[in-house]
From TrEMBL, chains A, B:
<keyword id="KW-0560">Oxidoreductase</keyword>
<dbReference type="Pfam" id="PF00171">
    <property type="entry name" value="Aldedh"/>
</dbReference>
<feature type="domain" description="Aldehyde dehydrogenase">
    <location>
        <begin position="321"/>
        <end position="383"/>
    </location>
</feature>
<comment type="function">
    <text>Catalyzes the NADPH-dependent reduction of L-glutamate 5-phosphate into L-glutamate 5-semialdehyde and phosphate. The product spontaneously undergoes cyclization to form 1-pyrroline-5-carboxylate.</text>
</comment>
<keyword id="KW-0521">NADP</keyword>
<dbReference type="GO" id="GO:0004350">
    <property type="term" value="F:glutamate-5-semialdehyde dehydrogenase activity"/>
</dbReference>
<dbReference type="GO" id="GO:0005737">
    <property type="term" value="C:cytoplasm"/>
</dbReference>
<dbReference type="InterPro" id="IPR015590">
    <property type="entry name" value="Aldehyde_DH_dom"/>
</dbReference>
<dbReference type="InterPro" id="IPR016162">
    <property type="entry name" value="Ald_DH_N"/>
</dbReference>
<dbReference type="InterPro" id="IPR000965">
    <property type="entry name" value="GPR_dom"/>
</dbReference>
<keyword id="KW-0028">Amino-acid biosynthesis</keyword>
<keyword id="KW-0963">Cytoplasm</keyword>
<protein>
    <recommendedName>
        <fullName>Gamma-glutamyl phosphate reductase</fullName>
        <ecNumber>1.2.1.41</ecNumber>
    </recommendedName>
</protein>
<dbReference type="InterPro" id="IPR012134">
    <property type="entry name" value="Glu-5-SA_DH"/>
</dbReference>
<dbReference type="InterPro" id="IPR016163">
    <property type="entry name" value="Ald_DH_C"/>
</dbReference>
<comment type="similarity">
    <text>Belongs to the gamma-glutamyl phosphate reductase family.</text>
</comment>
<dbReference type="InterPro" id="IPR016161">
    <property type="entry name" value="Ald_DH/histidinol_DH"/>
</dbReference>
Amino acid sequence: MNMNLHEMGKQARWAGRKLASVASEQRTEALSILSEKLLEHAEEILEGNGQDVQRARELGLSEAMLDRLLLNPSRLQGMSDDLRRVAHLPDPLEEIFEERVLPNGLRLHKRRVPLGVLGVIYESRPNVTVDVVGLAIKSGNAVILRGGSETIESNRALIRVIHQALMEAGLPENCVQWIDDPDRKYVYELLQLDEFVDLIIPRGGASLHEFCRKNSRIPVITGGIGICHLFVEESADLEKSLPVILNAKVQRPTVCNALDTLLVQRSIADIFLPEVVRLLGDAGVSFKVDEIAWDILKDYQGIRISRAQPEDFDTEWLSLILGIRVVNDLEEAIEHIAQHSTGHSDGILTQNTALAEKFVQRVDSAAVYVNASTRFTDGGQFGLGAEVAISTQRIHARGPMGLRELTTYKWVVEGMYHVRS
Amino acid sequence: MNMNLHEMGKQARWAGRKLASVASEQRTEALSILSEKLLEHAEEILEGNGQDVQRARELGLSEAMLDRLLLNPSRLQGMSDDLRRVAHLPDPLEEIFEERVLPNGLRLHKRRVPLGVLGVIYESRPNVTVDVVGLAIKSGNAVILRGGSETIESNRALIRVIHQALMEAGLPENCVQWIDDPDRKYVYELLQLDEFVDLIIPRGGASLHEFCRKNSRIPVITGGIGICHLFVEESADLEKSLPVILNAKVQRPTVCNALDTLLVQRSIADIFLPEVVRLLGDAGVSFKVDEIAWDILKDYQGIRISRAQPEDFDTEWLSLILGIRVVNDLEEAIEHIAQHSTGHSDGILTQNTALAEKFVQRVDSAAVYVNASTRFTDGGQFGLGAEVAISTQRIHARGPMGLRELTTYKWVVEGMYHVRS
């Protein structure tokens, strides 16, 4: 099939304008209907998903990949519940802010409006289809979806249900469009549609982000890649620090906000590092350590430890590996983070409030932590209700992007036939 | 000379980090020093500018171009005054916002931080060099400048003075770097530096914006192009509307917020249009009108009027030309604006508050006006103190971009050794 992306873009722009003009209740209603329909149509969705899983198995995809691909009744229920939750979040489009009256009497305010049309490019998780649609519709944005080729039958079934829900809610079905051809050329074509698409959100690995940044004429949200650090400063409560480090590393090692490198101040390294490797080693972690840590730890039995290579400190592990480096002081820790962090989530463990403030001031990451696990960087955990991505770029939005981050504003200027002199 | 843009980027990143960490007073001081130095070094700046102007004259550039290029003592005084004003604006980096305590006791807030490194690509106005440097330094951003080849000697002199001011203020001179080679390949190279540059701000015509959007790996602010509309609804106070239309069209016709197309409701067109063309015609305006307006106006003497071609309603005039179209009602006006506006500044003139609200709700431009001239879309007029650009894109910032729009935020999360469950 030869898809006409220009036409899709045009339709999306039109549908987005329509969506932006309807009442809050209608958008909420669409999500509630979809939430129900996911369960009513469970059979056909799971059947489509079954075909995808079978093909993936035939292609020899890893168990981890199969797990990401898989839908089952309880996962569908979870998707349905999430939609209902998003439906009942406050409407971001009702916000009016920065009201003021200028000296000449002009009345100014900003009014929150949808971004317009989102282009979302993702890989093998079919739940992303529903997550993204929920956030987009709630925030008044049309969306063009481009899922992975592995999920084509799951997405086909989901999109059918989504279109039914939109129609029942009285919204144009082109609010949600799907590029159902896995040919990669359509990703490129989507990235050229700057006339109709306002923001590209890639959800996937580094190479997808790189491809989008290189080829897009549309702003791209960069994110999802976290080389995360915790620095244990000498005043830290070491006993309380251990569970934080453990949590940051092992609670869910495959995600972007998991810990990658532990920095420990020299003065406490001799007593603290053995405790770290014992606790985390028991949890299955292996360690890539610098020379000083090596000297401290090399004689310990039963831990998986090796000397860190230079590139190890620039690696997002996404697994039970932890880099360890000993630093002399806060300054050296900040410098290491500046050199190696991806600006996602970095923290300090300390009892010294002045040093904590210095760390917060100088470390320029989307989320900077004092005495907490990096695992909290998440739209749900931060109280945003949900997230469409975690941005590590600097413009528009940083960190978890929820409903508000899918909006922009317009300036409204009200006068009494004012002229500029 | 062969410039090493990678090295410039690296230096800019380093200098930007330094700049972001100094006290507010030091950034303010740098601007005050520069403000003085511009006057102290007037002679060498004007001499450099004289060389540029002479070369431009030899090349046969238009008087309008020469005027944009020209510096003189009073313009230098203006630049110096503007810098002093920006120096004393509130520091955007002192803002802390969205503070909250989560149910688990984690304390969250957002802290405003600089974007980092700006890449600014502009054309023939040497005052942009100083404007941009003032806003960048005040907001804690390093900047790489790429001015037009016409202004090379003016910029050489200005950059020398800027570097002296930075050094006297104790700031690294690499906070401001200048690509002093007019070879266009360096624009392209700058657009590839996504490792070191956080935002590209083009200031120039449509082709420069197009080139940046097409080639940049870095987010680009699109803006500066305004096809602006005023719709005169039948309830408007026509006598008061005339000076607003006049102001929007003729007060400064060469800028992006000047009026391009006037939409007039059918029911008042017969009585109102003759008054419009008489008043604006006396001010030197000529008109491109649709068929209905033509029928109304064709027999009037002494006005320059012609039938509009379809592309005329997609033209930013930047001169004393006005498109006129007669529409049946608000709906048709909104539809015309949706089709032809660049999303810069559009307004309605009306006494009907319900229709005004409908217009504000449905017209999705950076600035939407009720009963005021479109000429107010400007950082100074909106009370932002100054502006680096007027954005017509939808992400990050819309409309006039002042100091705050050159910043982002970090999330700061403070816990008591919190772990995620």
